[in-house]
Amino acid sequence: MSDLQPSYLFSTRTSRVLAEKIAENYGQELGHIIIQDFSDGEFEPVLEQSVRGGRVFLIGSTFPPADNLLELLLMIDAAKRASAKNITVVLPYYGLARQDRKDKPRAPIGAKLVANLLTAAGATRIMTMDLHADQIQGFFEIPVDHLYASTIFVDYIQSLNLDDLTIASPDMGGAKRAKNYASHLGAEVVICYKERKKANVVEEMLLIGDVTNKNVILIDDMIDTAGTLCKAADILMEKGAKSVRAIATHPVLSGKAYDNIQNSQISEVIVTDSIPIKEGLSSKIKVLSCAPLFADVMKSVHEHHSISDKFII
């Protein structure tokens, strides 16, 4: 007889579609949860089954609005007060991760605040993917499983069978990520250097490297307004690239992102379903599911198996 504690999977409302895919791959149905809404906007999530002594997986990406984070925190508190032994919070997308440091006077460090809130609520383990900054792992005093979407994207890139492949980073901050992809794929790497005057607005961009007659793939952790990616694609095509594709883990896609992508020189944008996208707004967007990756790692964690083979890049 197995000595493993039982496991339970629950989801926030906005991550329900992804959570159902994760549950299917995990081999277990999502647990029942009822959320009571009050007329003033307050809500109360209630777990509809006993989780006493078990491992609870709470699945929810914390993209805006802030109610998504609050809902997850309330679910953690509910599981803790229901005597769950372990509470693993599965964050396919970790919101506020761009606020990972104090880069101006009197600014908050939002990513650290979120870590404090998750821990204070009762989380005993965090599972997430492609953090905006690796050092966010250090904001926690509990185990963090930081997965890489490269395990999803590398297979897709190889299936394209592109000649003269070059990996590009749309900014200096992503240079390490681009280099790791390039090393794994046996490709060259180039970097786009950008300067911003304010958030979401790129003032100037320069290219470091040669892309003449190359098929270029831009690598980033997220797409917000898509302004940086589209501007990078323009420069790459101006410098002689044969084609430009973009890969980004988290499709934030705010503002005019869909129009920017559709009207850009990018031939294809590949993302995961860590954040639900709006269907039918751009024919260039292809979604690869991260559900099998999370389900596999969740099962390994639950069964106390190594997950080191999930860290390709």
Automatic annotation (TrEMBL):
Protein name: ribose-phosphate diphosphokinase
The enzyme's E.C. designation: 2.7.6.1
Native source organism of the sequence: Soonwooa buanensis
PROSITE patterns: PRPP_SYNTHASE
GO molecular function terms listed in the Swiss-Prot or TrEMBL record: ATP binding; kinase activity; magnesium ion binding; ribose phosphate diphosphokinase activity
Pfam families named among the record's database cross-references: Pribosyl_synth, Pribosyltran_N
InterPro entries found in the cross-reference section: PRib_PP_synth_CS, Pribosyltran_N, PRTase-like, PRTase_dom, Rib-P_diPkinase
Reactions performed catalytically: D-ribose 5-phosphate + ATP = 5-phospho-alpha-D-ribose 1-diphosphate + AMP + H(+)
